[in-house]
Amino acid sequence: MIRGSTSVYDPLYSYPKSRYEPSPVIDLSSPNERRRLSASAIKAFLAITRRWNLRGQEARGLAGDLTLDEWRAWGRHPEPVLEQSSLIRVSHIVSIFHALHEIHGEELADIWIRLPNTNHVFRGECPLTVMLMGGTPVIQRVRSLLDARRFGK
C-alpha cells in the first residue's frame, strides 16, 4: 500500500487499460485442477516418449524418477492425479518437444536429445543424459535455452 493511501488499489499507480487479458493463473495446489490437467499431460508425455524412443527407465527419470508401479499407473485407468512437480516437469518436456520441432526438421527434432551437444549446458554430453542427471532445474534450463533459440534471444 502507498503511504497516505487508504486502499490497496490506487488509480495513480495502476496499469493502463488494455485489450489484452492475461490467462488466469492455474492453481496447481488444487486437486481438481491437477485432475483436469493430468490426463492430457500423461497422454502428451507418453506420446513424446514414443517419438524420442525412450526406454522405460529414461522415461521414468524424465517424469521425476517414478517407480515402476507409478509408471505403470500412468498407463492405467482411472488416470492418476499428478502432483505439481510432475505436471511442471511434463510441461517443460512438452515445451522442449515443441521447440525442437520449430527449430529443427522432424527427423532431427526427434533424435536431438540423444546427440552429443557442445553447448555449455551439456558439456559434450547428450541432452537426455544431462536432463536425467540434473532433474527439474536442468530440464527447465534446456527449455529456456531452446525458447531463447526459438524466439531469437
Can you walk through the features of this model?
The protein is an all-alpha fold and 153 residues long. The chain has helices at 31-51, 56-62, 68-74, 84-103, 106-111, 127-150. Helix 1 crosses helix 4 (84-103). It is globular and about 55 Å long. It starts with 30 loop residues before the first helix and ends with a helix. The mean pLDDT is 88.
Using only C-alpha atoms, the radius of gyration works out to 20 Å
Q: For the report, how would you describe the main beta sheet?
A: none
Oligomer: single chain
Q: Would you report the number of β strands?
A: 0
Stretches with pLDDT under 50, minimum 5 residues: none
Helical amount = 55-70%
Q: What is the residue-averaged pLDDT?
A: 88
Number of helical stretches of at least 4 residues: 6
Structural class computed from helices and strand pairing: mainly alpha
Shape: globular
What share of residues are in beta strands? under 5%
State the separation between the terminal residues, measured CA to CA: 36 Å
- List the helices and strands in order: HHHHHH
List keywords for this structure.
153 residues; 6 helices; globular
Per-chain topology:
Elements lengths: L30 H21 L4 H7 L5 H7 L9 H20 L2 H6 L15 H24 L3
Helix pairs in contact: 1-4, 4-6
